[in-house]
Amino acid sequence: MAKGMFVDVSICTGCKACQVACKEWNGLEGEPSHFHKVPNVPYPIAFNFTGNSYDNTGSLSATDWRHVRFIEQFNENRSEARWLFSSDSCKHCNDAGCLNACPVKAIVRTDMGNVVVQQDVCIGCKYCIPSCPYGVISFSEKTGTVHKCTLCNDRIHNGLGTACAKACPTGSISFGEVSELKAKADARLVQLKALGHAEANIYGYTEAGGLNVFYLFMDKPSAYGQPEHPVVPQRRLFRSAAITVFTAVAVAVAALISFRERGAKKNEGVKP
Amino acid sequence: MSPETQAPHWEWYYIAMYFYIGGISAGAYFIGSLVELLGNVKQREISRIAYYIAFPLICITPILLIADLGQPVRFWHLFFYTKDGIPYINHQSPLSVGTWALLLYSGMSFLSFLRVLGADGRLKSPAVKNLLNLFNRIPHKVYAMIGSFFGFFTAGYTGVLLNTTARPLWEATDPLIGSLFIVSAASTGAAAIALAMSRQNIASGETFVQLEIFDRVAMIVELLLIIVMVIIAGQYAGPILRGWFGLMFWGGTVAVGILVPLWLNWSARRPGSAVNNPVMLSAVLILFGGALLRISLVQAGQM
């Protein structure tokens, strides 16, 4: 009975109500500004705010668990434009790179299929951060631990949906049983294809063991900043470990050959 | 390949230095223990020096590792799951398995260290002597065998740890960083042994020649691994081809740390060579190159 979300970007208007609702429900602070100097500007600039797009945070972070992407596409002479939106968050992968990587079992999956960080267990080793193929999980200097979307763990275990889905005014984000959401997504995809949107596709049925939070995109996943073929890092672990063991054996053999007893004649040749 | 992964922001002076120092210690230890297990009496000096090097170096590493944690006081969570207090290991996480391997390796290198101290008559305290006698009931070769296994593990898992992520450079170089780190641990470990021996003027010519031969093989393999790794990384090799990390990697690791020592090694073998005693110089250069290998790969992967 995995719960999840279906994000239909075709009806997202980029209002960011989901971003606000997420911040409010989860009590997330504003992203701290990181100022630095840039050439030709006399005062320091907060470089972690984009300032050149409606996309204000630019990425997910320890305090931004939702991020509405604004994708501006133009043709070569800029006579035609398309503006795409997508509300991004943790995908609650069934084969979660962060959960697999966690050395202290701070990252766990609940009975509803969502992946959460136990704040009192996390030691802040930061290994989950590069292990997420989606760049979701983030470190907070303030708490010394990692943070990410919990699929509103407190709400969903008390019969409510996620805060972002509740706030979404167009129904672009819907919360529910993953199997029911998939039926809804399939029907919507058929409808969009019939309307001539040939590039529409569903992202998340097979990626990372299936994503509990999945998307209907109007362009290829990479246009929305998502990896086309994400590989859960631990699926490469066996090969990597096997090659390393092989090398260790080779080094041991090299050591045995180098340190074996040599004939006196040969040594004289080497060091006269 | 994932376009928008995040970097862990591991500090070079903690994590890359741990990879480096842990590598020297583990490399020295596995050379020393292999020599003890399979070598002859004349080579005992190598084992003795290796055990003297391995344990003090590995004592530094937990400090580096714990200092990099966001919650340093909770480091013990790596060994016990806090919700039930039962020892915990995550078989899918190189970091988790590596932590246990490091613990076991540290224990074995401590016993070997005690043993050489005892053999050299440097143990004064009766309590420590009793402890040594207690452990001596099992032949030291057993400890050396277990220790060399976990020594190899400690030297190599750090590379597997980097490869088992979604960062473009580390993912694209999969599965070779583990191998590269093991070979580098071997060459820096041998260099540390050679350096310690030449400082104390205790090495016989033959032992030096053997260390040199081993180091030469390790450096040639390391060079080949680096070339193959850069080729398979293809377009994702950018961060180690350009900028500071490119300079560190090609100038520091490859040129200064491998090619120059190989040349010194080679020219010293020619009769009438101008370079009289290149062993110390080579060893220092190899150790320098090993440090830059870890720093450039760990930091470039986070760019």
Describe, in plain words, how this protein is organized in 3D.
Chain A is built from eight helices and twelve strands. Chain A is α+β, with helices and mostly antiparallel strands and 272 residues long. Chain A has a four-stranded mixed β-sheet. Chain A is globular and about 80 Å long. The C terminus of chain A is likely disordered. Chain B is mainly alpha-helical. Chain B contains ten helices and no strands. In chain B, α1 runs antiparallel to α5. The radius of gyration of chain B is 20 Å and the shape is flat. The model of chain B has no long low-confidence stretch (mean pLDDT 91). At the A-B interface, α2, α3, β8 and α7 of A face α1, α3, α5, α7 and α8 of B.
Give a summary of the structure in a few sentences.
Chain A has 272 residues and is of the alpha+beta class. Chain A has helices spanning 17-26, 97-101, 128-131, 153-156, 163-167, 178-194, 237-259, 264-270, and strands spanning 3-8, 35-36, 45-46, 67-74, 81-88, 107-109, 115-117, 138-140, 145-147, 173-177, 201-203, 213-217. A 4-stranded mixed sheet of chain A has the order 10-1-12-11. Chain A has a two-stranded antiparallel sheet with strand order 2-3.
